[in-house]
Write a structure and sequence with these properties.
The protein folds into three domains: 6-114, Orthogonal Bundle (Butyryl-Coa Dehydrogenase, subunit A, domain 1); 119-229, Butyryl-CoA Dehydrogenase, subunit A, domain 2, CATH 2.40.110.10; 233-389, Butyryl-CoA Dehydrogenase, subunit A, domain 3, CATH 1.20.140. It is built from twelve helices and nine strands. It has helices spanning 6-23, 27-33, 38-47, 65-78, 80-99, 102-114, 231-267, 279-307, 313-338, 349-361, 366-380, 386-389; strands at 119-122, 138-142, 145-156, 163-169, 181-187, 192-197, 208-219, 269-270, 273-274. Strand 2 and strand 3 (145-156) form a beta hairpin.
């Protein structure tokens, strides 16, 4: 892994200080109340985080994916929900950065960088999740605009956001079906409504919504890239960033769960000594730390490959798969180390445990990641020795 520059260390230290001084003291109370963190969102705007991956020429910070991943780890040490507010927005922004027309970039990216326009991505539907080609939301050309009809589910920032990348079908008859998918930049307006806020096990405080499109009109100029049928590819390129982000989220939650477990184990006494001196607890801590270190390394490996401009679907899939799965294991072990107290809302570890399953599901389930990994190995590394072929 490449050594961090002083500039990278500086911005990571700034975010870490914000999280530890402002977020950590009140995160659990707000999470239990399912309270949207308006003031912390404003602070993230001040730090420029809504423009983290947007190039400087458009008013963003132009950070590397690696720096961004490390920032997300720090945010998730405080409250994982905060990272979702930023990440969903930046997947949308990344679509414009990577695939948008010159006019789309010049108009939208500066506003997205400041957070004036912010939102997320509308992909999942009631009858379409992992099978993106099965979406039923339609966009029909009508003069200089498209008319959109359909329903989108599990949209982060759905209520408090104002602009979204909406994935639609512009051709329902073409084969293969993914060539009929197109993406639009849609600002809220007539025909674009929030149907409901979805209650969740964890990931509270951030709005996750069902959105309805009923004869919603979007200008034809808002078709991402100006070309129909490219939406599926826009999604896939954006999901590399999204999966690296989810991996970083999982590492951040795992880190803080491990921190709490180590501190508690040194403070809690049984049989006349701290439980950290019992071999059973030491074995748990050793395994947890090894898992966290490995997940962090996989995440940074994927981020660095993305930063080199290389395709990183294999590495992003591996990082997301491993980090999300160990997050559930590490948070459970942290709860076990805390004993009965860990099951109460007086302890933060119950929150970490409830947040962990989201990472297994978000930006593609673990099963989808396994398919992505296997297909990449078969298609790109025929010898089977992918480490050697990839340059070790």
């Amino acid at each position: 892994m490449t050594k961090l520059t002083e500039a990278q260390r500086g911005i990571i230290a700034t975010i870490r200080d914000f999280i530890q001084k402002e977020v950590m003291p009140g995160a659990s109370e707000r999470e239990h109340a399912n309270e949207y963190p308006f003031d912390w969102v404003e602070r993230m705007k001040e730090f420029g985080l809504f423009g983290a991956l947007i190039p400087e020429e458009y008013g963003g910070l132009g950070l590397s994916t690696t720096t961004y991943a490390l920032i997300i780890e720090e945010i998730c040490r405080g409250w994982m929900s905060l990272s979702g507010i930023v990440n969903s927005h930046l997947i949308m922004a990344n679509m414009v950065v990577t695939n948008g027309t010159k006019e789309q970039k010049e108009y939208y990216l500066p506003k997205m960088a400041t957070g004036e326009l912010r939102g997320g991505v509308c992909i999942t539907e009631p009858e379409a999740g992992s099978d993106v080609q099965a979406i039923q939301t339609r966009a029909v050309k009508d003069g200089d605009s498209y008319v959109v009809n359909g329903t989108k589910m599990f949209v982060t920032n759905g209520r408090h956001g104002n602009t979204f990348a909406v994935i639609t079908k512009t051709d329902s008859n073409i084969v293969p079906a993914h060539k009929g998918i197109s993406a639009f930049i849609c600002e809220k307006g007539p025909g674009f409504t929030v149907a409901q806020d979805i209650d969740k096990l964890g990931y509270k405080g951030v709005d996750t919504c069902e959105l309805l499109f009923n004869d919603y009109r979007v200008p034809a100029s808002n078709l991402v890239g100006g070309e129909e049928g490219r939406g599926f590819y826009h999604i896939m390129s954006g999901l590399e960033v999204g999966r690296i982000n989810v991996a970083a989220r999982a590492v951040g939650v795992s880190r803080i769960a491990l921190e709490h477990a180590i501190k508690y184990a040194q403070k809690r006494h049984t049989f006349g000594k701290p439980i950290s001196e019992h071999q059973a607890i030491q074995l748990k801590l050793a395994n947890m730390a090894t898992q966290v270190q490995a997940a962090h390394a996989l995440t940074i490996l994927a981020a660095e490959k993305k930063d080199r401009g290389e395709r990183a679907d294999l590495e992003a899939g591996m990082a997301k798969l491993f980090a999300s799965e160990i997050c559930l294991q590490v948070t459970m072990e942290a709860m076990r180390i805390h004993g009965g107290y860990g099951y109460t809302k007086d302890m933060d570890v119950e929150r970490f445990y409830r947040d962990a399953p989201l990472m297994i599901l978000g930006e593609g389930t673990s099963e989808i990641q396994q398919l992505v990994i296997a297909r990449s190995l078969i298609n790109n590394y025929p010898s089977g020795d992918f480490l050697y072929e990839a340059g070790l």
